[in-house]
Amino acid sequence: MEYKLSAIGNQSSFKENGSSLLEAESTEIYRNSSSFGDRSRLTSNTRAVSQCRTEKAHEFNPEKEAADERYAQLQAIFQVAEEDGRGGLDIDEFKIALKKTVGFMMRNDQIEMMFKKVDANCDGRVDWEEYVTYNLLEYQERTLMIERLRDRPFPPETKDINTRHRETIVRVAIYPTVHKKASTNKCSLDYNTARYVSLSREGIVTFWTPKMKQIKSYMTHPHVDRATQPWLTDFVCAYNVNMLAVTSTDRDITVFDTQANSFKKRYYITGIDSCITCMDYWADIRDLNKSVMVWGDTSGSVYVLVFECALKGGLFGAVGGKQTAFKKISLPEVLRGFHLGVKGYKLGKVHDNWVSEIRYIPELDLFASCCQSSETSMFLGDYNYKTKKINTYFKVYKGLLAFDYCPENNVIATGGMDYLIRVWNPYVNSKPVVVLKGHCKPVTHIVVNSSRSQIVSIDKGRNIRVFDMKDQTCVQQLSGRVIKVGPLPISSVCFNPVTQRLVLATNTLAMLERSLEDEKSVEIMSHQKSVHGALYNKTFKSVVSCCKESVVSVWDLNTGEKIIQFVNAHKRIERGVEIPIEITAMTFDEPGRRLITGGRDGSVKIWNFNNGSCLQEFLVPDGLEITGIASARQRIYVTGWCQLVHIYIDGASEDYRKNWKSRHKDDILCIACMEPNLVATGSYDGDVVIWSRDTGQVYCILNANKGLLPFTENINKIETKQEESEAQSPEVKTPQEESVHSVQVADWKASASTKTIKTGIGLLSKIRGGLLRSGSSSGISGSRFSKPVESPVDHPLLSSYETHKKPESTKREEYDNIFKKYEAAIEKIVFLQTRDATRKETAVLVTSGAEGWIRFWSINHEGGLLGQFNAAHRIGESVHAMTTDHQNNFLFTADTLGYVKTWDISEFCISKMHNSAKRLVRWHWLLDTFTYLRVEWRGKPMPKSFVSRGMKPHNIGTRPPPMITEPKTTLKWPLLVNSYRAHTKAINSIEYVDDSSVVITASSDCAIRVWTLSGEYIGTFGETWKPLSDKTLKKQALNDFRLPKDLRRVASARTFRVLNHGTFPRWRLAIQRIREQGLEKILSQYEPVIPREEDPKKDEETEVKLQSSDILGKSYKRKIRHRLPKPHPKIIETATSVAVYHALSFVDLTDTDNILSKNIVKEMKERRFGTNVRDRLKGINRKKEQGPVILEVFSKVTKKPILPVQPYKKKPSKIKKAHRILQKKVNDNLPPVLTESETQQVHGKSKQASKSERKAVLSSTSNSSAS
């Protein structure tokens, strides 16, 4: 036992030392105590494995003997030190002891770091008990952390799938997609686009999409001419030929063609002796002609069909005749070799019982089958007896129900009736390699996930367990109550190795899948809940963070890895269940070796955060929330909603607790310490109380809503008495009397404050009578406290406050009252340690809080408020986190919108300013360091001072500070050198590390991120990055551009520019393309737009209408939206036209006499002629513009050509013809006698004439119809 403790105890030292011998040995011993599941107890399921390992551990091992001897020497050294009365080893003795024994390869700095971790009580000595306990607890916490952070392969709940199956589903299988590359003529299987196929016992085959959506269903036996319908037992997918082979209780195999979304019967195999119970199919991807089909039956026999030319007409050749025709195949003929390209093999009576499962293993060129028989549990052999390969049996008591093969590890996992999962070497059948326990019912299904080296097992109770083959532990367990697939046991399982989807089947379907798309879209989270804070520890160079779930994590800043984690730091127990309590405050002790945390329940705990052990615990008497903790000189200062400051002695019990007098009227929100002896606390009502750390007396009180100068506690007493007297005897005063009274009260406050500073508590006794005289009733000018001038102000609560206002009060006074009541909270206090606190022109105290106001205070009696500015990115946001560097040159602020801003305060509110030469040097250094500054000040000269009085943010004029703070003199901004968005939610903590020049931010979005000083993103705790150094940071700043995915969706253009080192590569590409399209030439064709005259009065009226609403009232406020830049005109490129715009600017039209002049008509004709010539040269036939179809139909009907109809003429008679001829001769003085030609004209030619006329009419009608 002594050896085990020592081996485990010094585990961390050997990790740092780089020695793997002791690590492996201690890990082995630790596994002996707990192999599976919960490592805190030794269950009955793991006794066999641990006993086996213990026997191996007792074997002779020279490395173990050497380690045992070294630990015995180290223990002897500690015992000698304890017997001498020294109480342990100091740091020098500890170095010598480790160098002689177990730490002979460790460096001095590593030994010193280890000594600081072990010596948590800071007494300067370490004994043997502390040493062993520390290492043991550290190892246990790290092991538990690994168990909690282990990746879960499946979600906790199943997803139901609607099906058309009525009976039990006998099998669900993947139908992979075969892709063939034309260039290389190689094939590959695609499981991402693979379909799924399910077959139920009544004969319904259903095809599913890759996302398990139903495509179509078919009946395998649609017309059965008998009373009973056969049951389907199994099927396989012949994916190389797009076929499906189905077997039934009729002792037959039906092969269907599924090509082109069809389902046609192609082959029908008969002559099978026994009913088939299971099948398997494999096709060679290198040559799709080769494939193997195996099956087992109820007699224990195995049949194998080897196809050598499957692509040539199908599995058994072409099928002729009609489309509905199919080909009958006799199995005995196939076994005798009567079918070309097909070889059949029969292995009779391989098993004594039904074949439960069969699988062809192409990596071994063998097949494996199992049954429920103790003698022939699993058979592994070759179907061809001519080859000299292994043919062996694996014997398991009561047989096996399922197995699977892992090609990566070359092992076979089996499950059977004895609840155990065995892992076998295929070449060793005498004893399994590993035996995994955990099931309480027979294991019916086994699936091996080779990519993760995991075994998924399912028992008859529908319990799912996932085992890791490497460390032989249960990674995940899903109870049968969670698997909602009906009351029946699981009949079939299908696992997709690519998408990691597990499909379960009974008479319905369910799915377990972790969506890879969701995993990629989800950002890396440092904690599972909102992060309260993250602190950097200079002693151990690590970052300690905590969240609302009461989880404390320790991170390595150099690499981003999690060192250790302990949960339920603050908790309560209800009915035997530990319920975590939120951590609301945290800090380090003065040496930085321990962590002090405060909870919402008022508990305070001191931790050795390197191993997660709780060293001490306190409880605040009221049990209220702790909001601030500070540690200095063996004292712990605790404050919170109790409005008190409690002082605990480090290492002592609660009996030695002291309480300072109550000086706050509201809840205290923060606390800070300043050397040598000052403590500051800030409350919700805006009071900042400066305490003497040694005596607990009040030095002074600061409040921006009560005045600029600091005052003491007596002024509060006088104010409360004055308020009580006013409430008891109210008097109605005129507005003139009220204004005079306000001036008098203000003067009285100033005089009272100076008097109490001098004569109150004696801390500023150096003040003499000159100051008292200046503080008289006439000493302070009335203009400072006179009635404020009306100015435009805006606040969401202003409209609701108008109902309770006094009739003589102005809008600005109402705004100041709202600010005093609701916007005065102090969220953070920071002391500027390097500044001189005795100078009245130098501010040493910085406060931040509601509305984003940052105020710089001088605690000198003549100092007070020296400067204030708004650091929020948008009006209405608050600044909850703030810090500064070691030299107090920069101030880092973080608001509730997720923005981080860096301010140069080297010249802000300080008496000593830079000279011009020093300011120039610092300006150039700032330009080289900060990208934001280079972008914002591009083309601008260096400012004369690093302090500006410009209005920032944009609408700060409507939300000014209270008038009592004198904004005209105190409102000023330091130089903003950096601004970027670091998170999408509020930032709760910000830290700056001077050693590495990095900024650490913790937010409510569960992420803790690390940034460089200039704003480049390094990473989020929870992922790993390259070790931080000057070279890596420079390379990252020059080459690597990384940004979290959530910021890519919401970040502004300025943030992108800062994080991308001031460049816009995509904008450059867009501008280049616009230039290539000739935008300048297109714009030059149009006249400039003449701006219209605008009426400022109308604009003001419309703005007032938009800011208010007749329905919602004056409380309505229009949403503020960012103004987007004007979009560029969208260009449509066509082959026959110039650029076309969706929208064009226009001017008023002018009257013209003749729009189409001769030159314009000429130009139009030339253009039309040119386009016609170009089209003819290109061979383009110009088509008519097509209109709506109904118009075309209408035009065809209305514009239908009319057939030409000859006018009707009555045929003249022969007598009239002869009369005409004779009359013509009489007129010509010729004899009236008809010649032969004239008689033919009257009789014969009339028929020819009629025929010719008919032909002419027909030709004319045909031409018209063709046109």
UniProtKB/TrEMBL annotation:
InterPro entries: EF-hand-dom_pair (IPR011992), EF_Hand_1_Ca_BS (IPR018247), EF_hand_dom (IPR002048), WD-EF-hand_domain (IPR051242), WD40/YVTN_repeat-like_dom_sf (IPR015943), WD40_repeat_CS (IPR019775), WD40_repeat_dom_sf (IPR036322), WD40_rpt (IPR001680). Residues 1236-1249 have a biased composition (Polar residues). It holds the Pfam family EF-hand_7. Gene3D superfamilies: EF-hand, YVTN repeat-like/Quinoprotein amine dehydrogenase. Keywords: Calcium, Repeat, WD repeat. This is WD repeat-containing protein on Y chromosome. One of its GO terms (molecular function) is calcium ion binding. Residues 721-745, 1226-1267 are annotated as: Disordered. It comes from the Eukaryota. Residues 69-104, 106-141 form the EF-hand domain. WD repeats lie at residues 400-425, 524-565, 583-617, 980-1014.
